[in-house]
Amino acid sequence: MKLKKYVLTIIFIASSAAVVSAQYKEPEKKDKVEIFRPEMTFDSLQAKKMLAKGSAVIKGVAYTKQKHPLGYSVPLSPRILANKMTVVLLPVTPYFEEWYKLRKDKENIRKKRFVYLSDQAYRYRLEAVTNSDGEFTFPEMRPGKYFLQGILDYTLKGKYNEYTGSGYNDYGGRTDYYQQKEYSKNIQDRIEEFVEVKENSEIVKVRLH
Predict the structure, then answer these.
(1) Distance of CA 58 to the CA centre of its chain
(2) Which of 156, 166, 206, 207 is least crowded, fewest Cβ atoms below 10 Å from its Cβ?
(3) Closest by alpha carbon to 203, among 102, 59, 89, 42?
(4) Where is the signal peptide (predicted)?
(5) Are strands 34-36 and 113-115 parallel, antiparallel or unpaired?
């Protein structure tokens, strides 16, 4: 019995060695995720200067429109106000402009193509939280161009008719039967807008949607 186990062990070791030294080895699948980054160096001093305190105010309302379950917009759909959503404000520096153009040209989430903003650039931001009416305020702003972004989560609810079967009468006529059912789907909208403060002490109003 011991001899049999010993022989099996030898065979297993020899088999493993054969796999390592095989003539044909299946390569590992390459990672299909593509990541793009701006080539320009981020200027932290410029960003810090743009976010220094001023006397202008940015006031806005954040909302989205209810979409079809397949993702496209629905005409005359009601507004969904951004309740307790964080609005991020970033200064539009040359680095940011390159990032935004790169994202517009290259990013495709379905194809796993992403454009990243550096951690250093993201640190130079301001944040505001909306109220239940979707309103938000950024006080003490300086003249300049800024980018606003928020992620709005909501649940899409609706009804549809589900086919349940067919019936036939004595004359050969067919009747299809349907049952009304409800559905719900979680939606996440990335809402963005550029805003420009042209002079001190002005109040700039914006709709973030």
Answers:
(1) 24
(2) 166
(3) 59
(4) 1-22
(5) parallel
Q: Taking a C-beta distance cutoff of 8 angstroms, is the pair 174, 167 a contact? A: yes
pLDDT for 182: 79
d(CA 88, CA 127): 5
Q: Are strands 113-115 and 86-91 parallel, antiparallel or unpaired?
A: unpaired
pLDDT digits (tens, 9 = 90+) for 50-109: 999 999 999 999 999 876 655 566 677 789 999 999 999 999 999 999 999 999 999 998
Phi, psi of 20 (to 5 degrees): -65, -40
96: nearest Cα among 149, 158, 172, 27: 149
Residue 195, CA distances (Å) to 1, 29, 85, 115 in order = 82, 44, 18, 22
CA 176 – CA 162 distance, rounded (Å)? 11
Among 5-14, 19-28, 141-150, 197-206, which stretch is predicted with the lowest mean pLDDT?
A: 5-14
b/e for 20-59, b at 16 or more Cβ within 10 A?
eeeeeeeeeeeeeeeeeebeeebeeeebeebbeebebbbe
Question: What region does 56 belong to: left with phi over 0, alpha with psi -120 to 50, or beta?
Answer: beta
State yes or no: pLDDT of 4 exceeds 60: no
Q: What CATH number was assigned to the domain covering residues 31-155+188-208?
A: 2.60.40.10
Confidence of residue 11 (pLDDT cuts 50, 70, 90): very low
